[in-house]
Amino acid sequence: MASTTPTSTPLSLSSSALLNAKAPSPARLQPTPVAAPSPLLLLQPTFPRPMPIVSRKIARNVVSMATGEAPAEVVATAETPEIIKTIQEAWDKVEDKYAVSSLAVAGGVALWASAGTISAIDRLPLVPGVLEIVGIGYTGWFAYRNLVFKPDREALIQKIKSTYNDIIGSS
């Protein structure tokens, strides 16, 4: 059989209960929750922290030279990459720079507008999935029609070369 020994509960007797010499009522014997201090609060220092010092970098023009022999003359030759030279030469050959600049700006605006349009279409429900299925279907059809058999591959390569020569202008 289980013993029925009463468990001891801490009693919180108030000063009024001690003065009146009355036992506290059972409603007052309810344990009261006490919050333990947070570990983070224990780690924080109690003294005020000083504000961090913000340092400013002072620009100085300092030239230093080792004692002894005078250094060889340093020539700053910054080599420009080949692509930049090619672009500069092509720009110098252009007669109507205003038209080329306008076309470049128009191309940038068209690229920005098309990106916005594609983004708007991508947000529509079901449309991205349908377009993906259409793209997979067209890729399969193109591969079957132009890449599977050797005569079709040769015809495709010939067409690509002729289009390239039409654009470049050389044969």
TrEMBL record:
Top-level taxon in the UniProt lineage: Eukaryota
Listed Pfam families: CAAD (PF14159)
Protein topology in the membrane: Multi-pass membrane protein
Residues of the Cyanobacterial aminoacyl-tRNA synthetase CAAD domain: 85-169
Matching InterPro entries: CAAD_dom, CURT1
GO cellular component: chloroplast thylakoid membrane
Transmembrane regions: none
Protein name: Protein CURVATURE THYLAKOID 1B, chloroplastic
Lineage of the species this protein comes from: Eukaryota, Viridiplantae, Streptophyta, Embryophyta, Tracheophyta
